[in-house]
Amino acid sequence: MTSNRIKEVALNHFTKNGYEGTSMAQIADDVGIKKQSIYTHFKGKDELFLQVCSDVFADEIKFVIEYIESNSTRFIEDFLYGFLSHYKERYEKNDHTKFWLRTTFFPPTHLYERVMKTVYEYLDQLEELLFPIMEKAIKDGKISSTIDAKRAVAAFLGVLDGILVEMLYGGPERSLKRLDASWYLYWRGLSKN
Fold this sequence. Notes:
By secondary structure, this protein is an all-alpha fold. It contains nine helices and no strands. It is elongated, with a radius of gyration of 19 Å.
């Protein structure tokens, strides 16, 4: 139980202050234990950070799978736009998603390779999960048959990236503007009209 509490508190600190701005002493104080007690559960700050990163990765993939399962009958336009909107809402309300984005864009320099390995695993899984949905939409005539499914998914992730960057730097109002404009052009490119 204590290791989960340590990870929960560490997540909050890493989200607000980044890796460099978080100390093991702060985490221990908030958990209500001595700093040395953390080392019973984790070898050090790096291991704790990477474990939080791994847990959040699993949580983000779980979100994607649940979104797909609960929205699989929606029209492809609504499905894709809804996914982008849910991610925006998730960022605004969920510390896991805030940590994930912060870590994705600003990984600790000395952990860059390890963090980015996890990030690329997430992106690869996301592509794998979205590809059959896009392929089916093309097959069913819901989007232009001249569109390659892999390209459509890659472009969709580009739209998602743009919105995520705006969430980090610009805030809710600017990210909504980015979502609206990016979505409009993306969907026009996919649609049969």
